[in-house]
Design a protein that fits this description.
Blueprint: H1 2-21, E1 25-26, E2 29-32, E3 54-55, E4 62-70, E5 73-82, E6 88-92, E7 98-105
Antiparallel strand pairs: 1-3, 2-5, 4-5, 4-7, 6-7
Length: 119
């Protein structure tokens, strides 16, 4: 009886280590160019190694980037840690069209770059 209980203790311990190590590091920031002038070198748009990444909570499995455009013009970027993430673009409005695209990453801390960088 001792061997099976030791097995379960070791198994639970190993699972908890794997779960903890799965947390992600994300850049967390927000920039809104409707309320401030556009800066091409904005640290939220193009984070560098000098920028601090946020160590997300153990329950956060994704970095999320939300890109907002008004009539096709990029105006806002928000980067956060998220427990769940669904990659989706939603468009709304008549005359003044607003689109909001959510990008989900679990390996790239600068998630959302695909929404505003033209290659």
């Amino acid at each position: 009886m001792v061997a099976p209980s030791l097995f379960w203790i070791v198994l639970i311990f190993l699972c908890s280590i794997l779960q903890v190590s799965y947390a992600v590091d994300c850049f967390t920031c927000s920039v809104d160019f409707r309320s401030q002038p556009f800066e091409q070198n904005n640290s939220c748009l193009f984070p560098t190694k000098d920028n601090e990444k946020t160590r997300c909570s153990d329950s956060s499995k994704f970095c999320q980037g939300v890109v907002t455009r008004i009539n096709g013009v990029f105006v806002q970027l928000q980067r956060t840690c998220e427990t769940d993430c669904t990659q989706i673009c939603v468009e709304k409005g008549f005359g003044v069209e607003t689109s909001e695209c959510k990008f989900c990453c679990n390996k790239n801390p600068d998630c959302g770059k695909d929404g505003y960088v033209v290659v």
